[in-house]
Amino acid sequence: MVDMNSASDQPLLVAEELGKSYGRLAACRDVSFVLYPGEVLAIVGESGSGKSTLLQMLSAQLAPSAGRVSYRMRDGVLRSLADLGEAERRFLFRTDWGYVHQDPAQGLRMAVSAGANVGERLMAIGWNNYGRIRQTASSWLQRVEIDAARIDDAPRTYSGGMRQRLQIARNLVTEPRLVFMDEPTGGLDVSVQARLLDLMRSLVNELGLAAIVVTHDLAVARLLSHRVMVMKEGRVIETGLTDQVLDDPREPYTQLLVSSILPP
Amino acid sequence: MTLMLDVENARKTFTMHLQGGISLPVVRDVSFKVNAGECVVLSGPSGAGKSSILKMIFGNYRCDGGRISVRHQGEMTNLAGAEPRLVLNARRMTIGYVSQFLRAVPRVPALDVVAEPLLTAGLSREDARVRAGALLGRLNIPERLWSLPPSTFSGGEQQRVNIARGFISNVPILLLDEPTASLDAANRAVVVDLIAAKKQAGVAMIAIVHDDEVRMQIADRTVDVTTFAAAA
Amino acid sequence: MNAPTYNFAYLDEQTKRMIRRAILKAIAIPGYQVPFASREMPMPYGWGTGGVQVTAAILGPHDVLKVIDQGSDDTTNAISIRKFFAKTAGVETTTSTEEASVIQTRHRIPEAPLREGQVLVFQVPIPEPLRFLEPRETETRRMHALAEYGLMHVKLYEDIARFGHIATSYAYPVKVNARYVMDPSPTPKFDNPKMDNCPALQLFGAGREKRIYAIPPYTSVVSLDFEDHPFTRYKFDAPCALCGAEDSYLDEIVTDDKGSRMFVCSDTDYCEGRQAAGHRGVENAAPHKEGAHG
User: What does the pLDDT look like over C145-157, one tens digit per residue?
Assistant: First the structure.
């Protein structure tokens, strides 16, 4: 568990007046926030609200039209993502960041064994001992509740929930400090979702991970996040503690969102 | 006497946008203080805003005005309108909340549900589990249930798990939202004992209790919430 | 002998210059795949169009050319390429590794040590070592640019996970000059150590894929591996049946329709040389050419 007093005095990621427009269409406007180590932020909103565009900008996959994103590197220096070289950005992506796609096929190598999927990041940062890589992969599989006996099976033989858990293991093996998740439970059965959410929740707690989770599912936001940002038409219309925003929503749109879900 | 909680002119109004934007004033001018080792019971009829006040103190509801100061890390800190980070930190270190209903976390065994606040506070898993087990036992949750997720328990059992979770932590301020509702006499007595022990330990408590007998046993003072009723 | 209808070595001078520029760049950046405007050659893709263009671009009138295919000087492919240059460039040809100044090869490096001044030209079908794991060319190029080679080890990991050892036995990836990971063309991994610190210049031409890459003389070439599963050269159980060599790469030859087989050197020049010097293998009953390629 993170010590919220000392470790988190300095922000991990800072977004300043971020915007993205395509011609006259503004997909995302004027988004500013600060994320501290160990904090889980949910970005909620309907399809087309700009939350995915925002996630792409935050994770340096899309260059913003306005504003900037800064990240505190492991050496403690806060740097603008736009100033990072491509090599540095990609290195971040392989080490200090994780990215969990909604569709595990996008985040996994489907034809390569689960062990190699988990081990790839380790090999990418220079691990050169097969035994150690395999052992680490195996312990991560168990951590995400995948039978270690299936380490040599390719993810295409896995169920949807297993694939998603494998994707999480693949991301967490380098002990990133920040994980981006794009609708991590989308497309899964309800029972599978519950298991996955519970797993993510405990991993985030144990590892002291910061996470930015894009979801349209308020139940996901409630279970996983400390804070929530509600987006509509490219803007952040309400933000605050997750239980505060969900139990005491202020904006008309948020009240509509909250009232349209079943009670937890 | 150490002042632990100081509520000054706190105000709350709900604006129901889905009902044509009507305003529902809940409370206004809420002002009271709670010292260490003191249990203050909020009184008033249903709908007077007792639960809302607890939720405002906990940061679950936002204040529209006024101050809610708690002694957090040794200093009086205003939580009304505070940054989420500060509120979260206060919940971790300073304020605990025992609600009537357990927000069940799927798949987590009862023992771990109860032990979690201690883990958060830095105890080892083993120690936390031992203490959690002791408290569950005291609240008459049979040991065979400890390894099961409480979502499968009866309503009364769930409530006792929740009470254990609320009382196990060492936070100096506890908010008790009907902790004894629907408990049998034996378990009610256990809760009354737990509250007495917390008082001994200098914990400041704000409680909502409907049971007159329990109120008599735990209340050092009563604050009448009807005086804060907001004019409609 | 030079047929008057062809320019020297078949290609026109402009094309040869273009290819030479690519070769120079490839030598300057060891292991890096340089794109070039590959020409149509009078042979099908897969028969060495890349190697032939490189050879054509570097060949001079005084060169002595040797062409081998799977180590052998006398297979169809080797003979026709040798004849092609004999006809279009009029250069002297040889089967001797020692005598040759330019050796074009498919799938082997000669057993006899190469020397300074020699050029070994490899025919390459697929130059991209990352291709089978990452099909996007844009992505593999970026990975080379940023030296992101974790994926290469994924392939080796898969081998060990599946077979208990690194089962990749040819086209075994190497790191050149501690920078670029390179596919040494489908040579057996047996030949990988010969590439390291080699006195001869090694050029690689991929005609269909339009890439040229190079290992300059005396460049470090390291086969990728894991510390607990180190690279090993292929080990044969028996010596060559014809010349008794214990240190050469062997081909399996089926000698009849009853399943009888023998193992002989794949490098025919080396094997003949040893036999001429009096070395004999256990089954050297028949002249090896009949046994091997009759």
Answer: 999 998 899 999 9
C243 located within any domain: no
The pLDDT score that the predictor gives to residue C237 is 79
Q: What CATH number corresponds to the domain at position C196?
A: 3.40.50.11310
Give the distance from residue B21's alpha carbon to the nearest chain A alpha carbon, in angstroms.
Answer: 8
Residue C49 to residue C186: CA distance in whole angstroms: 15
* Statement to judge: residues C114 and C214 lie in one domain: yes
How many helices and strands (H and E) does chain A possess?
10, 10
The answer, for B77 touching chain A at a CB cutoff of 8 Å, is no
What pLDDT does C293 receive?
38
Of C223, C240, C268, which residue sits at a domain end? Answer: C223
Asked if residue C215 lies in contact with residue C40, where contact means CB atoms within 8 angstroms, the answer is no
Q: Are A130 and C228 in contact (CB < 8 Å)?
A: yes
- Percent of chain A as helix, strand, coil, to the nearest 5: 40, 25, 35
Dist CA B203 CA B198 (whole Å): 5
- Burial class of residue B182 in the structure, from the number of CB atoms within 10 Å of its CB (0-12 exposed, 13-18 middle, 19+ buried): exposed
3+ Cβ–Cβ pairs closer than 8 Å linking A and B:
yes
Residues B69 and B73: their CA atoms lie apart, in Å, by 12
Do C69 and C199 sit in the same domain of this protein? Answer: yes
For residue B140, the domain's CATH number is 3.40.50.300
Does C285 have pLDDT greater than 70? no
Which alpha helices (H) appear in chain B, and where do they start and end? 50-58, 84-93, 110-120, 125-138, 155-168, 185-200, 212-218
For C291, the token pair is 């046994």
Q: What is the ipTM of this complex?
A: 0.87
The predicted-structure confidence for A112-122, as pLDDT tens digits, reads as follows: 999 999 999 99
- Provide the residue range defining the domain that includes B47: 35-65+81-226
Nearest CA distance, A131 vs chain C (angstrom): 7
Written as one letter, the residue type at C86 is A
Picking from B16, B73, B84, the nearest residue to A241 by CB comes out as B84
Q: Classify residue C198: in a domain, yes or no.
A: yes
Provide the 3-class DSSP secondary structure of residue A233.
Answer: coil
Q: What mean pLDDT comes out for the span A102-115? A: 94
Please, what CATH class does the domain formed by A1-96+177-264 belong to? alpha beta
Q: Which of residues 82-101 of B touch A (CB under 8 A)?
A: 84-85, 87-89, 92
Does C198 qualify as catalytic in the annotation? no
C31 is catalytic: yes
The reply to whether C53 and C199 lie within a common domain is yes
Q: Which domain holds residue C267?
A: 250-293
Share of chain C above pLDDT 90, in %: 76
* Active-site hit among C198, C240, C244, C281: C240
For residues C110 and C175, state if they share a domain.
yes
**What's phi and psi for A11, nearest 5 deg?**
-65, 150
Q: Is C138 found in the same domain as C264?
A: no
Residue of A nearest to C146 (CA): A87
Over the stretch B170-228, which tens digit does the pLDDT of each residue have? Answer: 899 999 998 888 788 999 999 999 999 999 999 999 999 988 999 999 999 999 988 88
Catalytic residue among C31, C48, C51, C71: C31
Active-site pick, C71, C207, C243, C244: C243
